[in-house]
Amino acid sequence: MPQVFLLAACAALLPLSGLAQAPAKPESPRSIGVFMDFESAPGAASVEIMKREVESLLKPSGVSLAWRLVRDNHGNEPFAGLVVLKFKGQCKAEGAYSVTGAFGSAGESETLASTKVDHGRVLPYSEVECDQVRQALSYLAPGAGQKERQRALGVAMGRVVAHELYHILAGTTTHAGKGLAKASHSFEDLVSTDKLSFTAEDARAITTGAR
Asked: Residue 52 belongs to a domain with what CATH number?
């Protein structure tokens, strides 16, 4: 079974100059503005499912998310922090998708997302490779309908995004030995109906880092 790597550290400077934010009031909750930028029009149903999945996974940390599109930013909302998510490729279940490589080969891996790191500091900028994430749909039962495919893609995207947010909010490039913060998961894990979650320790790291 192929392993999918969810974080690839790469040195880069964060292009956030166009994402001004109003100062957060000290008494405001830990609300993180998540600004999304899609390379092509995404599947609306899958994106909504992705949001719900991420919010559910981060709920134990006490962090709330405010989802926005990059183009809708006006710099007048008070957030405790900002994150930019760039979605590349086709982020929708509709249409054909290709499977790269020989599935099941020993040591096979796919990079599904990457978070920028500059001189050891995790930056709030991640890129999600939707075409790679879509390969997880091949693990659905034969004959899965369109709604099931949309749901599965949304869940898979949500788990990938939540993993990257862990690195950003906790401010760490390290991985856990178990749970969603592990370095890699199988494609089957990403679409499984079994609940993936962060460990209590990882949830505390998110809480502490997001303060």
From this structure: 3.40.390
